[in-house]
């Protein structure tokens, strides 16, 4: 892939500035659509288990592709789907530490950590835990934006805040409280996605 990994670009001061807000939104959408396909349209469903900025590659047009399926797992209906803990530190869903059960919700958690990283320009680290316990009304958009880019214009700003609000709701420790990737990709495909904000019930999602 011409642009190599998303991680490489975000960590490079010069290259990261080429990722404007629209490109970043499209990267988030691209990963969401890919995971939705893996979870919803593949039989059996595929859980990647290691969604991170190092495993998202970008082509010459900054279109995102998921890579490294080395620890991906096929979800079998007649199996407990339990496995050893694996994945990249900082992206692994918290429930895996005590259940060892792989579900699509593990990828959902990793995806939203990645989405917030794309917007901030770096992994949020321990701030992820604080966000998970914060009402979205208390979140300041400016605190989560990459300061290397100009402040987004109104239309893009609303889309970014929509993604952040959706992401924070997905950080819930209870897997069943998270929306599916199918639901997330559907919401992101709306034009504009912000039009759906008023219909979203805090921490309550239909399982599409």
Description:
This protein is mainly alpha-helical and about 210 residues long. The protein is built from eight helices and four strands. The chain has helices spanning about 5-10, 15, 20-40, 95-100, 105-120, 125-130, 155-170, 180-190, and strands at about 45, 55-60, 65, 75. The protein has a two-stranded antiparallel sheet. β2 and β3 form a beta hairpin. α3 runs antiparallel to α5.
How do the SSEs run, as a string of H and E? HHHEEEEHHHHH
Kindly state the mean pLDDT as a whole number? 86
Kindly name the structural category. Answer: mainly alpha
Largest beta-sheet details: 2 strands, antiparallel
Work out the helix count.
8
Give the distance, in angstroms, between the N- and C-terminal Cα atoms.
32 Å
**Strand order across the largest sheet:** 1-4
Helix content: 25-40%
Content of β-strand:
under 5%
Which residue ranges are poorly predicted, with pLDDT under 50 across at least 5 consecutive positions?
Answer: 197-208
Total number of beta strands:
4
Question: What would the principal axes of the Cα set say about the shape?
Answer: globular
Radius of gyration: 16 Å
Task: Tell me the layout of helices and strands.
Blueprint: H1 6-10, H2 13-16, H3 21-41, E1 46-47, E2 56-58, E3 64-66, E4 73-74, H4 96-99, H5 104-120, H6 127-132, H7 154-170, H8 181-189
Antiparallel strand pairs: 1-4, 2-3
Helix pairs in contact: 3-5, 3-8, 5-7
In short:
The chain is built from eight helices and four strands, in the order H-H-H-E-E-E-E-H-H-H-H-H. It is mainly α and 208 residues long. A hairpin with a 5-residue loop joins strand 2 and strand 3.
